[in-house]
Amino acid sequence: MTTAGHRLPRAVLDLLATGGGGPRALELLHAAQHSKNLLLVRALVVLTHRVDHPDRAAVEAAYRVVGGLEQGQRQAAWGHPPVAAWAFGTAALLRRGDERAAAYPGLLAAVAAAAVVRARADADLDVPLDPATPGRLDLPGLGTLRVDPTATRARVRCAGGRAEVRCAGQRTEIGYDHPPGHRWRPVPELRAAHGGLALRLLLDIATWRHVPMAAGARTHPIAGSVRDPGRWQHRLRGAWRLLTDEHRAVAEEVSVALHALVPLDPPRSGVRSGTYHHGFGAVAMSLPPDPRSAAVTLAHEIQHLKLAALTDLFPLVEPGPDESFYAPWRPDPRPLEGLLHGAYAHLGVAGFWRRQRFVERDRAARHHAEVEFVRWTRAARQTVRVLAAQPRLTPVGRRLVDGMAPVLDRWASEPVTPHAVDDAGRLLAAHHAHWERAEARRG
After folding, report:
1. DSSP state, residue 244
2. What does each of the 443 residues of the chain score in pLDDT, given as a tens digit?
3. Where are the beta strands (DSSP E) in 235-364?
4. Which domain holds residue 76?
5. How many domains would you assign to the chain?
6. Exposed, middle or buried: residue 321 (CB in 10 Å: 0-12, 13-18, 19+)?
7. For the chain, how far is it from start to end, CA to CA, in angstroms?
8. Nearest residue to 208 via CA among 87, 85, 92, 298
9. Are 83 and 44 in contact (CB under 8 A)?
10. Counting Cβ atoms within 10 Å, is residue 219 exposed (0-12), middle (13-18) or buried (19+)?
11. Do residues 320 and 181 both lie within one domain?
12. For residue 425, is it within any domain?
């Protein structure tokens, strides 16, 4: 049997190159990511068989169970962002073979159990527990059950939206809508709805902790817990009102693409944020100080998410020497592909502030928005010029750069106050001077 490949129409690529794309582009990218996730999960089954992993039987049974669910339920199970990132990292560990003990393919059985509960179907599953997190049965997207720390396996019998968990002589009933208790903690979620658009983000911290280093999940310091979900909810709802009312195109993309939020430990100042290349649909961030900061962070990270998914379809940079470049938003030099990612993300940031400067009523806030617009337009424009001179761009990478350039040129010609121009120039100059001093110390 042969399957059809994924195609991205030229018109959609051209829209992505301008920094947009819309829901249609996100739907196409999401479909391609679903195919990638299916291949990764199938690879896990094959690899556990090949290395004769102790959890092989549980993995194969879980794969069959999820395969028997409806298509949408299968997509939700394999496409849950931390599950996708876990599948990539675990497959990488199993493929290397020498790190078999560090892999936890048995999580697939927990994924299957959670999917069956959500589908209100029936199944009886043997679920291996992760030795790296003793005393926990994590059901991705559903919740965490505290179990005996010495237990190595659990039996999960699912029926009618409920599950009976037997582990180390204890029997506990849990469910999709089961309230939290002494031992059961459902996955918290954030919801926002405004202007006809809705956003639902799962805060599934527990599942992210099973993602191996190979998937890059530990590059961001994940918070140990969410002590006050109400503060997150307040920030998200305020950000969502701002995006849907004033940045509608961004809100439409975010609504289609994002399904999970990964809370990060706060930095000393500002907001720490990021995305995971192999966890499509997730955004990571520390608690923003206000809704506007949350909104611009979402506008920034949706750009990274789109470009990461695009690079799974098309290479943007040809292999070549180990080069690094100055990036006006980073303290360290960046490789060519990282520079392209940063330019694309800051095109989105500049676009946010371009619109936001007309939203702010307070004079200081309006000035800040204008400074940010000038600063990031100049930074991205300067970087795009550097990118355009690089011979290692593939045809798709060059089309992306060629699409960004006229947008930034047009924005650079828009009228702004001299005060904002001066302040933005000082910020850019200070960043470059700091970078040069750091380069001198590195050299």
Report:
1. H
2. 344 678 899 999 999 999 999 999 999 999 999 999 999 999 999 999 999 999 999 999 999 999 999 999 999 999 999 999 999 999 999 988 755 567 899 999 999 999 999 999 999 999 999 999 999 999 999 999 999 999 999 999 999 999 999 999 999 999 877 777 779 999 999 999 999 999 999 999 999 999 987 545 556 688 877 777 889 999 999 999 999 999 999 999 999 999 999 999 988 888 999 999 999 999 999 999 999 999 999 999 999 999 999 999 999 999 998 899 999 999 999 999 999 999 999 999 999 999 999 999 999 999 999 999 999 999 999 999 999 999 999 999 999 999 999 999 999 999 999 999 999 999 999 999 999 998 888 76
3. 260-263, 273-274, 282-285
4. 31-186
5. 2
6. exposed
7. 56
8. 85
9. no
10. exposed
11. no
12. yes
Structure tokens, 197:
């658009």
Choosing from 186, 219, 248, the residue where a domain stops is 186
Question: Is 290 in contact with 64 (CB distance < 8 Å)?
Answer: no
* Position 325, amino acid: F
Residue 222 forms beta bridges with which residues? 264
36 and 181 housed in the same domain: yes
Is 143 part of a structural domain of the chain?
yes
Residue where a domain terminates, one of 186, 219, 234: 186
Contact 223, 205 (CB under 8 A): yes
Kindly report the length of the chain: 443
C-alpha radius of gyration, the chain, whole number = 23
If asked whether residues 37 and 177 sit together in one domain, one would say: yes
Burial group, residue 160, by CB count within 10 angstroms (0-12, 13-18, 19+) = exposed
Helix ranges (DSSP H) in 21-180? 22-50, 56-67, 71-79, 81-96, 107-119
**Domain-embedded: residue 362:** yes
State how far the Cα of 433 lies from the Cα of 155, in Å rounded to an integer.
60
Indicate whether 384 belongs to any domain.
Answer: yes
> Tokens standing for 19?
């920094």
